Amino acid sequence: MAVMDIDERDEQADEHNERTTEQRHTEDCRGGNDDHVQCLAVKVGENGKDRENGKGSNPRGNCNSNVSRTLTGEESYRDGHLTHTAFVSLAILTFITFVGNFTQLQLSSALPSIVTEFHVSVTTGQWLTSVFQLVMGVMVPLTAFMTKRFSTRQIVITSMLVFTIGSALAWVAPSFILLLVGRMLEAIGTGVMWPVLQITVFSIYPLSRRGMAMGTVGLAMSVAPALGPTLGGWQTDMGGWRSIFLTLTVVGVLCLIASTVWLHNFGAHDPSVKADFFSVMLSIFGFGGLMFGFTNIESFPITHPMTWLPMTIGVFGIIWFVTRQLRRDKPLLNLRVLTNRGFMVGTIIASIAFFAFSSIMVIMPLYIQNDRGYSATLSGLIMMPGAIGMAITQFFGGKALDRFGARPVVISGSVILTLGTFAMSLISMHSWIWWVSICQFTRQIGMGFVLMPVTTWSLNCLAPEDVSAGSSVTNTARQIAGAMGAPVLVILMETMAAARKAALGGGADVAIASSIFGIQWVLRISGLLCVGMVLIAVFGVRGQGAGTAHGALQRVREVRVRAHR
Question: Smallest Cα–Cα separation from 132: which of 280, 295, 247, 252?
Answer without folding.
Answer: 295
